[in-house]
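Whether sequence alone determines local backbone shape is best considered at the level of individual chains. Part of our work consisted of pairing the sequence of a single chain with a tokenised description of its backbone. This step matters because it turns folding into a mapping between discrete strings. For completeness, the protein is quoted in full, as a sequence line and a line of structure tokens:

_____
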Amino acid sequence: MPKLETLPANAPADDILTILKRDGALILKDVLSPDEVKAALGELMPYIEATDYGRDDFTGRKTTRTGALVARSQKVRDMVMHPAILEAAQSFLKPFCERIQLHLTQVIRIRPGQPKQPIHRDRWAWGTYMKDLEPQFNTIWAMTDFTKENGATQVCPGSLGWPDNYQPKDEEIGYAEMSAGSVLIYSGGVFHGGGANTSNGDRIGINLTYTLGWLRQEENQYLSCPPEIAKTLPPELQALIGYAMGSYALGYYTPPLPAGEGPELVPPDFALGKMDGTSAQFGSDELRELVGASIRGEEKA
């Protein structure tokens, strides 16, 4: 059975990316303290307990999936913006985009009696169309100890090059066994799935994932964290959940106001009351010049 590499919480981003690009997954040990884990669960358990089980075998008939975590939990906001995780996510995804964005926030609670989830790739959220780039940087934060018995995530290290229709053999599947407070980091291209819970207790993890700024998010952050909540967040987090241009022309809108009573084209953070200086978010100077040249029929090197 393959074993995932484990790095200390303070591992450099370069070390994280080296293993991630080779194996597709790794573990960062004890990123959160026991008190931080307890505080996060304290904020989230009322929502978790009120969440129904999944309705099919993939989502899990004895698994609960609770979302809208940025709107609901200060501790999750801190986790989303964790400097080491965010630096690694930026480095991993930035070769393919101008801006990264938050893709999904979800508490996954695997309860006793839940069978194994089918092995899959998270990038299949967009189908199997993207072949030459990696669209996702994913994390699962352990809120309880993860063991093979309680449903530790199944992971196939080294599966990045496997064809999409490949069926992993038992001996190719490892398990992300880790202590509470540790983080499984994995790419959108690695084969993985929730484990079977044959224990007497719950396995709780927080799935926070990042993607390219020009892709559709799996969790609609504008509805999960609407402007009246988003305007209370730090600017960096506002931008990460999508209240910023994804590129030169990705994400603008027209406020639905009476004729002549408002601007016509504005960046998304206009919805948060930011009416000054936001035009600079319409892409970089280089990209604006490139688009302008295209409109004028000029060639740019």
